Amino acid sequence: MDRRKVDVAIIGAGTAGMGAYRAARKHTDNLVLIEGAHYGTTCARVGCMPSKLLIAAADSAYGMTQGPVFGVDPGEVRIDGKAVLERVRRERDRFVGFVQETIDEMPEAHRLWGHARFVDAHCLVVDEKVEVVADRVVLATGSRPNIPGFLKEAKDRLIVNDDIFEWAELPASVAVFGPGVIGLELGQALSRLGVRVRMFGVGGAVGPIRDKRIRDYALTTFNREFPLDPDADVKAVVCTDNGVAITFADQHKDEATETFDFILAATGRKPNLDQMDIQNAGLGLDERGAPLFNQYTMRCGDSHIFIAGDANNDTPLLHEAADEGRIAGDNAGRYPDVRAGLRRTPLAVVFTDPQIATVGLTIDQVDERCKGCFAVGEVSFEDQGRSRVIARNRGLLRVYGEQGSGQFLGAEMFGPAAEHISHLLAWSAQRRMTVNEMLDMPFYHPVIEEGVRTALRALNRNLNIGPEVITRCMDCGPGG
Ligand SMILES: Cc1cc2nc3c(=O)[nH]c(=O)nc-3n(C[C@H](O)[C@H](O)[C@H](O)COP(=O)(O)OP(=O)(O)OC[C@H]3O[C@@H](n4cnc5c(N)ncnc54)[C@H](O)[C@@H]3O)c2cc1C
Ligand SMILES: NC(=O)c1ccc[n+]([C@@H]2O[C@H](COP(=O)([O-])OP(=O)(O)OC[C@H]3O[C@@H](n4cnc5c(N)ncnc54)[C@H](O)[C@@H]3O)[C@@H](O)[C@H]2O)c1
Question: Got any disulfides in this one, which pairs (predicted)?
Fold first, then answer.
């Protein structure tokens, strides 16, 4: 077996691993980036980018059906599934190509191909061919779909997100298990592209929404497009000659059986730590077998091992993976002089229509932090001026603030332009702005952000800081 001795070994060449590599390289040239399956990153290959490309096609199809609202008749809308999927792949391959170029620019000695596992805390074996003895290690192994056992009854009709982007044609029907982020994004997109979709959940959750009023609004809205039961009673999943038959209790609690071409498992993801003999690394593990780590240094206990990205299952989002990779790589490089890195205000966006966004603390976290002394401001987008003008007037925004200080702490939104509005709100939260300070900022007319001002004014009033809110106030133009 070949043997290599390095200062830093990074396992996984995804977003977190590549970020860790760049940061560690500022400290040492004796390092290696180990990849066992694909270069290109989950984000570009099968995650953020191809999913958003599919959603863009679905948005376009849906937008055409909305033409008559404005008196514009697009004629018959025909969806060419083959062309839709070809564009998804073509653009996806461009993004993957950019990542591959970055990998190609790395010195060959810094790249090692193969699956890594721990022999002991410093020794890794890669594909049983190379032994890597590393002074420090970064774990950036990402995650993969977590599929409940009963779905495996669907056999070759069971798919995960990766498979959709390889389809040559759109199927006629898909049952989606898991109305989480992936299920909602891909399920709604398929539905808008003409695929019959039914969605099954457990426990009542809808995406990442924690605020009950927003969850209920979103559930009603999605159910206008496709059936979504967030707490479904599924009795059987059986593979037949015609597809996969699912027997479930319908909305009247009667037993119904419906057959689909495929089942999409979107039931959460699990870290890729289970096939690498992590127990040999000598780390403190939680009840699920994942290493305990510090969120600011990414260090596992007081060890020489750091963990970043989806592998630590903390906040499995792209920008967090990038930040965590950079912090982990920098600390692995500078070890033992470990430093705390910048962690940003929580921000997540789900690219459904309307979009879902979560910012800062959830309503339960606000309640806990303020010991009940907080208030909520709300706006409905149904009568909001700009939203009505462009016929995107669906949704709710709820903003949370602390009594006394008047500090803005967080928000949840299901509504138009949430991807943009959530940034304004997250930036305000990170700057620790008060609601008054946010209301001092300029608001143009007529824009969707005027709805944010309405919610903030309501919040200020409910905090007993601002004046009584005037219903349909015309000072700033109609529909604010
Ligand atoms: C369908 C979908 C849509 C998404 N959309 C968004 C979005 O819109 N916005 C957003 O912020 N996030 C989104 N995400 C989440 C985002 O893609 C991930 O948080 C991010 O890609 C994680 O990066 P990572 O570096 O941790 O993992 P990865 O990019 O998965 O990299 C991990 C790498 O480690 C390798 N590896 C694993 N084990 C070993 C081993 N033992 N030895 C060697 N190599 C190994 C793997 O092969 C892989 O290449 C989406 C995810 C999915 C699945
Ligand atoms: N726009 C984005 O930022 C984006 C998009 C896609 C994915 N992601 C990231 O990827 C992560 C994983 O996404 P995900 O959608 O797989 O996970 P998730 O945790 O968001 O959703 C999983 C859903 O499956 C449900 N579920 C679990 N077991 C089930 C069962 N047996 N039957 C039916 N439903 C079941 C859960 O209740 C939950 O609603 C997300 O947490 C997110 O961080 C982000």
Answer: 43-48
